[in-house]
Structures are given as structure tokens and as C-alpha cells.
Amino acid sequence: MILCLDTNTVVQALAQHHPFHPILNAWVAGDLTWAVSTPILLEYEEVLTRLSGPARRRKLARLMDLAELTSGNVLRVTPSFQFHVVTADPNDNIFTDCAITAEADYLLTEDGHFAPLADAGYKPRPISPQQFIARFVASGR
User: Fold this and answer.
1) What is the per-residue pLDDT for 116?
2) For residues 51-87, b (16+ Cβ closer than 10 Å) or e, as one string?
3) How many CA atoms lie within 13 A of 24 on its CB side?
4) Which of 38, 60, 65, 100 has the most CB atoms around its CB within 10 Å?
5) Quick one: pLDDT at residue 108?
């Protein structure tokens, strides 16, 4: 299963005792593939550095590099088209463009701006981290 994670989901999931942490555990276990693009990685870097400092950002980067080398469960894509699915906050389109290009199953987000993706005619569906964990992680599917 291929996922794209918005920045807020990643920031929260990195905290070991946060309810979203099982998403990262499932990814580390090789049960999920995490789709990213360069603009997404740059946003992760900027936000993590601002909120938690450069050490936490480096830790995520190393973890992603290691997973890519050992498990192959990081899918780096280069969207060649901008789909303009999100109009309420156009900056969020870096996630929809990545998810569509990667043919992701889901885009994990709590942001309502992604609602138009559900009816845009593309494969990825927006889903909250809580719903994803309940459906796929907690059940072991």
C-alpha cells in the first residue's frame, strides 16, 4: 500500500507516544510504502527544523534513506504535471501531485483542504490518520 503523508501527520507521528506513531511503525516494518517528492521533503525539512530543530529533521532523513536502501519502501517521485486539485490552499498541491503521480492509495491528512481529492477522479483518497490506523494498522491488513 502506497501512502503520501502531509506534514502535520509526519510531525505528530514522529513522537513515539503519539497516537499516529503506529503509522511510522508499520512503515518501518515494511508494511507500507511512503511516497515523497522533493517539494515535500523540503517542506518536511523546513517544518521539522522550525518546530523541533535540525537533529530531528536529520533523524527523519536518515531513517528514510535507510528504509529506501534496505526495504525499498520509500517511493520518490517527480511530478511532471500540476493537477491543481486543492484550491483552498494551493501550497497543499505538492501532496496531491505526489500522491497522484505515485498512484498512492491514500493521502493521510487531517486537513479539510484535501477533500476535493476524493472526487477528483484520481486513485488516491484523503483519509485521516485516525481512520487509517483503525482500518489498516490496528487490524493488521
Assistant:
1) 95
2) eeeeeebeebeeebeebeeeeebbbebebeeebebbe
3) 16
4) 100
5) 98
- CB half-sphere exposure, 59, CA atoms < 13 A: 11
Q: What is the pLDDT of residue 56?
A: 87
CA distance 58 to 25: 18
Q: Where are the beta strands (DSSP E) in the chain?
A: 2-5, 33-36, 74-76, 106-108, 125-127
Q: Quick one: how far is CA 135 from the chain centroid?
A: 17
Which DSSP symbol is given to 134? Answer: I
Q: Per this entry, what is the length of the chain? A: 141
Residue whose entry in the numeric block shows the C-alpha cell 534513506: 65
Across-strand partners of 115?
none
For residue 76, the SS3 value is strand
Average pLDDT, the chain: 94
Backbone phi and psi for residue 76, each to the nearest 5 degrees, phi listed first: -95, 125
Q: What is the pTM of this model?
A: 0.93
